[in-house]
Amino acid sequence: MDESPQSFDRVLSSMCTPPHPVAREAAERFLATNPGDPASFPSVARLEERAVDTLGEVAGLDDPAGYVASGGTEANLQAVRIAREHGRNDANVVIPESAHFSFRKAADLLGVELRVAPTDADGRANLDAVAELVDADTAGVVAVAGTTEYGRVDPVPALADLAADAGALLHVDAAWGGFELPFTDHAWNFADAAVDTMTVDPHKLGRAAIPAGGLLAREESLLESLTVDTPYLESRTQVTLPGTRSGAGVASAAAVLDELWPDGYRDQRRRIRDTAGWLADELDRRGYDVVDPELSIVAFDVDTRVFEALRDEGWRVARTGDGELRIVCGPHVTRDVLGEFLDDLDRRAADVGTGHRANPGAGSR
Amino acid sequence: MDESPQSFDRVLSSMCTPPHPVAREAAERFLATNPGDPASFPSVARLEERAVDTLGEVAGLDDPAGYVASGGTEANLQAVRIAREHGRNDANVVIPESAHFSFRKAADLLGVELRVAPTDADGRANLDAVAELVDADTAGVVAVAGTTEYGRVDPVPALADLAADAGALLHVDAAWGGFELPFTDHAWNFADAAVDTMTVDPHKLGRAAIPAGGLLAREESLLESLTVDTPYLESRTQVTLPGTRSGAGVASAAAVLDELWPDGYRDQRRRIRDTAGWLADELDRRGYDVVDPELSIVAFDVDTRVFEALRDEGWRVARTGDGELRIVCGPHVTRDVLGEFLDDLDRRAADVGTGHRANPGAGSR
To answer: CATH for B21-260, among 3.30.465.10, 3.90.980.10, 3.30.1370.100, 3.40.640.10?
Structure first.
């Protein structure tokens, strides 16, 4: 083939990161297996059970129900589907406007009314705004633990109380934040609040190979509404959205969770937190408006011409809905990489004449 | 890890097969890429375009629209979704009872009424039965080109005419059959009939790595109803069900389609056809009731005790809804493997005393 894979060196906007070496090794070994057919591929099915058990530990849940999904979109969609079946006809689901676009996809697919609550100025769900949208037809409320754009953590316990009062389920989307939050003071998981379902993706900060999302549920019975009969397989039912599934994703998740939970992820959290803090300081000293990084995403205002020039130079960067340049400090985004990025940013800002200071902290990396 | 991947040696019931060496090589190279974010991972996005173009050649369609899906379930679900948007409220979709269970999953998710038409005695869609279920609210009709249980091919042109007369879309599920049918006399594809959408999976007989399903559409406009905005990615919209997607699946599909289309797949068709015919003859000579293999699936009556004994010996076999043992003669299912299987079958049948002849054609392999 004449194409080469994009190197992750200059990918600063991805919620994913290169798989950990043990994840890659397991993915390659289990490439030709299908956990969607557990009677034919029993060993990878056992690895999936193990991965779900460890995900339960990550998320504060003994004896978790769930499975390794194709990604966060599938997990969020299945959670909305569980809520729909839990509710009445004409069910609605209330999300903060910071929720991932997969909820719009899910609502469109499932025919569920989506009610979108404005967030606070800092990007967290506003409790009053959510409460105002909840009514007798509300089947589910969504809290985000690590928003895609700014890494914000919603007030999960208060949202869970609000959902419980309405007889609705609470879903937490911790697709990206779930491997950083266990090492913070945030209240976000099954042990902290009356959470019913959660998305937490091994293939993001968990460092598994794509595709390895995670759907967790407090009770096995919550998965019942997802069940379909599987007439030609020796296993008799299936709860996943895809039929055939990636053994590479499942095995890599099991392997890396074994390897890194909890100490390896704790070290990773410390490293990426330090990097994000350092980057925010560097940008601040240059005079950029920086959105305070709660988790390891840094967003800052950028001139469109500078942004385009950086993309032309090969930097894989993206913007928030409000136009800030957004850097996800995954494990592959080191200070060395960011130092090169800052040099290019300084040069392009000077070319355009944005008035930002260039390299005020030279030598500080 | 203490688990080993299931070897494919004894897997006789899977629609999948080990990836071709060029598919494996490409999957490993592109493991850490995400075609769901084409602005950050442009090379794998180009490979996806190439794969879709070649899938169009496989399916008789110039300038195809579509994408590499997580598998046949996603592709079938998206086709039902396209039909739903094409129709009115209260849309129904008519399927033959031989259709894959993913259509039940799709209908449940999408809130679409599924009408199931009985098949002929030979397992093909019955035109009269389908016509009886089609009405003014029918938004889609499904034809199967290679059924999961018996490898049967529905009368696609007649079903397409029927759908067109009703103002409905025609979807062909060739998830498994699509890489065998181009080398047969069947009328099944976009060139043969007024087909609107099709499922054809590289990760089955196409020999790509999981996950690599295929959704094709005659016109780009058919995909419009799948579109969601993607606020934080530099690409602006997305039609796929998952967000993050497997670069391994996409790159492996592109690589193996380059390598095998058309001559390699023609040779493969000849080999698996010969094997299926040989197996059917061997079983017939032993006195089993064998369902005539139209494509390369062989099903035959089996005593439950024999079936269980074979599974206990490690054979990964499965049964149809009617209880026949079903062998999918994928490229990894060689005469040597089947010879060992027949020896075990003969021994177990003798143990149980089913009265079948053992090894009547010894030496004929």
So the answer is: 3.40.640.10
